[in-house]
Amino acid sequence: MAGLPGAARARSAPPGTPPTLDGTFLCSPLGGLMCAQAVLGLLVWSLIAATTYHLHAAYGWVMFVSLFFWILTLLFLVTYLLQLQLKFYVIPWPLVLMIYHAVATVLYITAFVTCAAAVHPTSWRQWDYNRRAAASFFACVTMITYGVSTFFSFRAWKGLGSNAATSQVTDHA
Known about the structure:
The protein is built from six helices and no strands. By secondary structure, it is mostly helical. It folds into two domains: 57 residues, no CATH class; 75 residues. The protein starts with 23 loop residues before the first helix and ends with a helix.
């Protein structure tokens, strides 16, 4: 839990306290990457939605993946910003985040490949080509951010960012 802000306070938060805003989460690697994923995911699905994607089944998959993970990323971002993970301390949040980011990475790989393969320069509408090509690029960048988040989530899950003394102090405080 070393990479997750608020992890040291997990044991000390009283159950009746209202959620507070954790600004330090945005400065952490996972917080910054989640913000980037929200912005990039928004770009991917809005660019696809601005085309005639309903005529091509491949873009339906890209639309599903990008919109689904955009919504889940926003939910996780709000959860960590408001420190709601401290209220549900039974859930292994570092493991949940690692699994979420790993699944998002794999599905964004399929969405990126699908989107890039379905772009045809001979499209009858030039603006559809430009938007689909841009969506392919942003899907690739989003896929990379989810992959990097998987790495940081794995480190947080394994506790690789702290030493033994730090973990003992926070576990018994």
